[in-house]
Design brief:
513 residues; alpha+beta; Aminopeptidase; eight-stranded mixed beta sheet; 16% strand; globular; disordered N terminus; transmembrane helix; LytR/CpsA/Psr_CW_biosynth
Amino acid sequence: MPDHPDLDVSPTEPQPTRRSVSEDPTRPIPTTPTPDRRPRPHERAAASTPDDGTVGADAGTFRAIPARSGTARGRSVERDPARRRAPRRSGHDSARPARRRTAIGLARAAVVVCSVIAFVVCGAMWMGASTFRGGLGYSNALQGAPRSTDGAQNILLIGLDTRKDKNGNDLPDDVMRQLHAGDGDSGGYNTNTLILMHIPADRKNIVAYSIPRDDLVETPDLDVSQAKIKEVYGRTKAATEDQLANEGISDPATLEAKGRDAGRTATIKAVRTLTGVPIDRFAEVSLIGFYDVAKALGGVEVCLNHAVSDDYSGANFSAGMHRLSASQALAFVRQRHGLTRGDLDRTHRQQAFLLSALHQVQSAGTLTDVGKLNRLMSVVDDDVVFSQGWDVVSWAQDMIGVPDQKISFQTLPVVRYATVDDQDVNIIDPVAIRAEVQRAFGVPVAAPAPSSSDTSQSGGSQSGASSSDSGSEATPTTDDSSDGAQDASADDSGPAPDSGPAVVNTGTIPCVD
């Protein structure tokens, strides 16, 4: 999801002074001493501007209505923009009643999955396997990677902030205007959403971890020793395309496909190294995917604890419940300016969006609406790339019988904020992260060996605890650079960042900041 200033401003808005290196993955991290430190949580005031009945540019028109039971609620009214394609019809009218019944059963069974990748599975629930599989996009980025062997499943959701489709093509101009997120050259290929979901063998205690985009990690395979984890994809993609071009490959489609696969492989490795657990499947979507799923559902309901007003993203909402159109929903998940916890609050927005989509997918109104189901199928076809070998339909059927239960979204902890080489970063403790994730995923955690440097103090060590459990894979790393750690230690850290409470599925719409 969104990351740097280009993602959070329209083309006509003034650009912040600081520019992220992620705009150009091939460019070295700047070393000019002009730090633009992000405000600390205790310095940052939460936005609480009273709603004036409007939403930011291109985000639509907002109208609040009184709430039931005395609670302030808001509903948004917006004319949906023209979709770039007509809803697809299956062509098998006689099979619709049976398929609709199958959709209802599979939707209820796959509820835990829809919380993270609602738009991935819902189309599969509606369409027959032979019809649906033909249009899916697949990637072999997981080829040769370690997998779980204990019956559990770890699924990584990769969200790119690119303004291109899954094949690297520019989005239509009318869609770009609705996204309110710059042009096709904005955003690059940052992975601003990384969510690792664990489904244990007994299908209980489902947990998903969001990985903050600015977490500083070791990058031994890149041209820099450390980088934000969201930059691994784009930097690897650019380096791979340069190498292929030097080998004489000039076809843009080939370069795009191979570059993206390399970026996926590198991102998967980075997440595996950070968390110490294998990744069994992944699904990748771009910025347009979040927009399209909201549009396919006819809007998404969200709840805000406080009023917000942000000209950069176009998010301008009062406190309480709102039903957001597609463009408003995108502004909701993109906002980071004016929030108490900044990007960590935006992470909670993304989690709440997914749980809201789940809540809506479970509703009878969605499961009996042929048009919505067809539109959800189109989202899967057009916006999602799956790991090779993932039979989504069979997998959804295998989830039959999974109880409707709580799904917990956690956020990986951050030790402190820092400025490294003029870049805002999150200093993390990889050893503590591995221990927390492995414990949450039910993996026995071995006590880490004493290190010559305290990772939580230096911010540069990436030595991880290993695990002997057959269902996990621990990939130790080497601390081969201390430059970033030294810069980080010199920064005035302030209090440790507060990741906020977990966002939990309780069958209702969660309220977030």
